[in-house]
Structure formats: structure tokens, C-alpha cells
Amino acid sequence: MKIIVVGAGKVGYNISRVLSEDHDIVVVDKDPVALQSVYDNLDVMGVEGNGASARVLEQVGVHDADMVIAVTDNDELNMIACMTAKQCGVRTTVARVRNPDYTSSQPFGLSYTRFGIDVMISPEDLAAQEIFRLIEVPMASDVEYFAQGRLGLIGIKVSEWFHIAGKRIRDLGLDRFTVVSVVREGRTLIPDGDTTILPEDRVFVLGQTSGFHSLEELTSRHIHVVNRIVIAGGGMIEEPLVELLDSRRTGPRVHIIDKDPERCSRLASKYSSCSVACVDPTRMDLLDEESVGAGDVFVAVTGSDNSNLVSCIAAKSLGVDQIICEVSREDYIKLAEAVGVSATITPRLLAANTVLKLLRSTSVLSVNLLSSGDAEIMELIAAENSPITRGPIKDLNIPKGVVIGSVIHEGQIVVPRGDTEIKPGDHAIVFALHSLAGHAEALFSSEDEGSSHES
Question: Which of 12, 142, 223, 277 could, after both became Cys, cross-link 155 (CB 3.0–4.6 A)?
């Protein structure tokens, strides 16, 4: 598939990196420095120019493209690029749009799909939704929901005092959870019963959502009640996150810390249920004055990696256990974890997830990249005559890097075993190394669709 990516910034680079393994990618950007990074690190074609220009799009072969993804920092440029591409016959267009004037519900039935934009994505809105889910499940480093919210995947950083630390998975006796992945020293492992869980591992477990609000079975530790959510804001994630938290009828109090007086005034007048302090969130003495400490959830979304990390270090020093930090680069994740951050959010990776869903076959209901970028978790539906329906799981040719974590058969959630048989129409939550994701997808596709996908 030929895909044109307009924008070689952080979001465009990451989308190009993820997609270039399986597709022909052309990256367009006016900035030669940004393009140079693409040239140096990715197996893609780069063209310097204005991605909203019909001349430039024709130069890069827009008439032969299957998709155009416009993700520059300019909303209007992204929208025009998609509208132009659609006029040239491109099947699917995706625009990064952050201005709520464009993305909110439009009056009089106005929809930008009529003008050639199929999908609008906002990495900041996606990040706010991810943070909201993490707040709902204390101590989780990752949270995803599947099967219309009935199944959940959570990631947990293992401490030496956890019940599961130092034990083999087969000896854990976990009735409600299935361990589907272990991230160790930055590398994703697909475990089996003999895999031993070690301190500092990040373990991903799958189970019914109703069981995820109490993690004592995994941690041997009582989860403290959250008294307050403290948001160290300043970036573009702050307001959509406050909007989500303010929409709840009940829950912990929200306290906003931001050093911009104008933004503080606007937030205080708009969200009367939230308290607002106009102080610098990187100053430990000022955080102390705001009584930041044990019982708080601390969320750092200042828009600057450096400020976020410094404010998280300060919050940790003041006794905060649950800390969520926005980082713009994946290589900062390990640094954030080293200073005590519970969970990291990378908006550009969330944007890549959204694009991935558009590229998959009809057997894929949802797909999410792991934050490490080397594994995916998918919700798949078994097609008629698909390889996965040809017998018990133990007798099928399933690669070692693929694990079926859960099956939904006739509305019932089943923890799969070797003798489990998947029937056409069944849903399954499948964890796979990124290099094997296409193989996992083909297992659930019909013979015709699967052979087309593999080619």
C-alpha cells in the first residue's frame, strides 16, 4: 500500500516509522532538517515541499496513493492537504486537527467528511483519554479496553514485594487474569507457563474489566484511596483532560497547577468544581505549599519533557505514589520510570495506533501498539474458513511470538487453553510481536483475505 505522510515532525516521523515496515511511505515536509532525520533513520522516500499544494502532491504520485495522512502542526494545512488528496481520488484521508472549533460537534449537520477528510485525530485528546483511563485503575502503567469494555488489558511495573515477583506464571494461580506479555529491559517477551516474573518487569495481564479495580491479587498491596488528582498543566493535553475529569459525577477532587495566569483564570471560571493554583509545577517548594503528597495522583502535562520530568521528581520526593507523565519521545520512557513515574503517555504513539486501525482487514476490530513499539494487541473476529477455526489451539500453527489472551464465544468470555476451539464469529484478544502481527491477523482472516494480506 502506498501512503503519503504530510509532516515529518514527531507525529509524522513516528507514524512513518511504524508503517514503513509493511507499506511504501512518502514523507512530505517543507523543513529540510526534519526530512533529514527521516532520510537518516527510515526506509522511506522524502520530498521537500508544501503538502497542501496540488502540484507537490502530484509530484509524489498522489493519484496512486491509497492513503494520505496529514499531521503537521498546522490544522488548516492538514485539512487542505486531505481535501486536495480526496479530489485526486485517494481512498482514505487522515488529518491531525487540534483546534476544538474544527473537531467539536458541528451545527446544521455540517461534517468535514463531506469535504474530503475521512478521519480527524488529535494526539492530545487521545492522550487525555488514556490518562483518564489510568486514573481509573491505580498503579497501572497501561490500560486498554476491548469487547465493548468487558475485557481490559493492564500493564503493571513489578516491585520486589509484589506477590508475583520471582514466581513462574504457572505457579501464580491467577484465576481472573492471563499474563500475555512481559517487557524486560525494554524488550517484549511473549511468556509461557515457565516464564519467571522478575522485579522491574512490566507485566501485561488480560481479564474481565470488573476485576481491574482491585489489584491486590497481583501486588499483595492494598490500593490506597485517591483523595485528589493534581494536574501540572501548561500543554495542550491539560484542558481536554480537565474536561473529562469534570464530566464525572463523583470522584477525587481535581487541583490544577499552571504557571500561566491567563490559562489559570480561564480554567477557574470554566470548571468551578476544580481548584486552580497559578504556580510553577517544577518548584518543589511551591508543590509543597500546595500540599502535594501521599494520597494524590500527580499528572504532568506541561508540554515540555524537561518540565514534566522535573515536576515528577519533585512530586515523588513529596510522597506521591501514582505519577503519570507525558513524554514526547519513547527513549524518555526508561528515564521517567527511573525517577519513579508510574505510567508514561506518548501522544504520537497514540496517533499511530489510530492510523494502524484504518489499515487493517475486516477481521481486526481494534489494534493498539505497546508503548515500547515492538508489540501489538488486537481484537480479532474469526472469519469463515479462517485458519484459526480449523481445530484446537494446540494443533494450530501459531508462532511463539503470538498469544491468544481471551476468547468471546456467544457472549461468554473464555480463558483459552490448548484444547479451546475458536469458531467463526468468535472474538479474540491477541497479543503479538509487531513483526508477527500480520501473521496473527491472517490466522483470523478468510483464505482469500489472508493470502491477500500476506502478499
Answer: 142
